[in-house]
Amino acid sequence: KQEVTQIPAALSVPEGENLVLNCSFTDSAIYNLQWFRQDPGKGLTSLLLIQSSQREQTSGRLNASLDKSSGRSTLYIAASQPGDSATYLCAVGGSSGSARQLTFGSGTQLTVLP
Amino acid sequence: GAGVSQSPSNKVTEKGKDVELRCDPISGHTALYWYRQSLGQGLEFLIYFQGNSAPDKSGLPSDRFSAERTGGSVSTLTIQRTQQEDSAVYLCASGQPQHFGDGTRLSIL
Description:
heterodimer, A: mainly beta, six-stranded mixed beta sheet, five-stranded antiparallel beta sheet, B: mainly beta
């Protein structure tokens, strides 16, 4: 059974800092990996999707990497802003059969202080 | 609308009652997923629909939970004889990659 772990559980940084969020998973036979953002009381917003054959994806100040063999992904946020404050979730898409349900980590709660 | 729509956004009900949650996926998306997000449990997969195929119900926690998807579009998640441990946010997603709705916050008194 796939297990996804995110470290740290919470992070507080001053505005302008670069930061890295970590995600690890136990089964390397994955279909894809997604990073989501969740604001309080809201659903999930997809930030970056990395297919299993890819190594990284970039969108604006965000960069996500994937090392399938070691079961790790990182989300790099450059020049953090208070508006980046949210919970960041890592989710791994299964590769078996037709099911592509996501297995989620517990998230990292990020606070960017002005 | 352009996104996944869920209703109601909030639902408060008494223990033992049945509840029905609705999900309108993005038009054209054949894949539809239900997840549950509860305190201390994180996000858990419940059920997956793909076109006309039999749904993958492997995540449903008990036989009190069921889901339907009519006409390959709208889906309803039904919880019978609700218990307090059913209190959670129920999220629906459609497509691949998955696009999520804002969820239904269910509170069982």
